[in-house]
Every structure is written in C-alpha cells, then in structure tokens.
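Anyone up for a design puzzle?
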C-alpha cells in the first residue's frame, strides 16, 4: 500500500517523495554543521603597549597562531615621559578609573580565544586593558593574559582579568621581562603548546 506499480517498476508516491526531500535537506545541513566544527579556532590578540614591549610579544603570538590583532588605544594619550605615565597610571588604578578607548572590536563573540596583552603597571593590568575588558561581553570566550614587566612578573594581572570577566574561561598566562621580549618567540611558542593554542 502507498505505492503505485507501473510495469515492472515500483515508484514512490508523492508523500514519500516529500519525505525523501526533507531527509536529504536535513542530512545536507548536518554535513554543513560538521564541517563548521572542524574549522580552526578563531583567535584575537588584543594588546595595549606603551613602550612597544607588549606589542612585540603580541606579534610573536599572532605569527604563531595566525590570529587577528587589535590594538587597544586610549583617546587621551599617556604622557611621553615615563614618570608622567607612572603617576597617571597610579592615580587611575587607585581610583579604579578606566580611560576612554578609541574603539572596540566589532564582534568579540566571533572569537574562540582572545589573548589579552598589557604591561604590568603597579602589579596589575594597565587601565586601558581594564577599560577594554569592562567594555565588552566576554561570556563564552577563552581569555589568555600575557604581560611584560620590569621585574614584577605576572603579579595580580591574571586575577584582575578574572575579576573583570568572571563568565569567561581563563587559561594560564605568560609574563615576559621587557629586556628579553626580542628573543621571546621560542618561549612564546612553548607556552602556546602548553595551553593548547596554536596553528
């Protein structure tokens, strides 16, 4: 029943044809989803760099991972003299001030992993980086901090990132002394392998 015979051939009736077409469409969609899951992870390196040290490490990460890059920039530039930078940063950190940024990335949700680069200022992330993390929704993102320093190491930088983005996943960060950033690429690559992020 439900079939029509024509000669020696049995042909499906129209309802059966419709079911067949629907099943074909569903299988096609399932194949597309499977292909999407096999795509490489989408990575962003977002970095604020005053002296250029953090930017150097950011470029090493970008080359090793094929990531996109976003430079965090403030509207009101920091002073050119280092003492002026220290004074302003100390005031902003002490008052929990977050300087206005020139721009934010268009679609943070499109990235699986976001590297967050900053100098270590007064044992924490620089205020522009705090402003960046406060301005976006990082729910579902994996964040990876990296900092450059003059001897203070990571200090409270990872803690600050986690506090500002409690709904994100945080991976082990990297601290690089500013005097060794030019030769840090091999160390950066080892770290990327340890945390399972890379090409």
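Challenge accepted. My sequence:
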């Amino acid at each position: 029943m439900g079939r029509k015979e024509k000669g020696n051939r049995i042909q499906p009736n129209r309802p059966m044809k419709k079911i067949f077409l629907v099943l074909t469409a569903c299988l096609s969609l399932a194949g597309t989803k499977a292909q999407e899951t096999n795509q490489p992870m989408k990575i962003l390196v977002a970095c604020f760099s005053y002296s250029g040290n953090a930017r150097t490490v950011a470029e090493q990460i970008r080359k090793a991972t094929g990531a996109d890059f976003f430079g965090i920039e403030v509207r009101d530039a920091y002073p050119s003299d280092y003492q002026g930078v220290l004074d302003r940063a100390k005031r902003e950190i002490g008052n929990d001030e977050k300087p206005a940024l020139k721009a934010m990335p268009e679609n943070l949700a499109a990235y699986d992993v976001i590297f967050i680069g900053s100098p270590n200022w007064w044992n924490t992330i620089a205020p522009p980086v705090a402003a960046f993390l406060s301005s976006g929704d990082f729910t579902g993102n994996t964040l990876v901090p990296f900092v450059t320093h003059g001897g203070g190491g990571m200090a409270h930088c990872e803690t600050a990132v986690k506090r500002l983005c409690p709904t994100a996943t945080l991976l082990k960060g990297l601290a690089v002394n500013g005097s060794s950033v030019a030769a840090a690429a091999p160390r950066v690559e080892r770290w990327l392998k340890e945390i399972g992020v890379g090409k």
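A detail worth pointing out: The longest helix spans residues 14-37.
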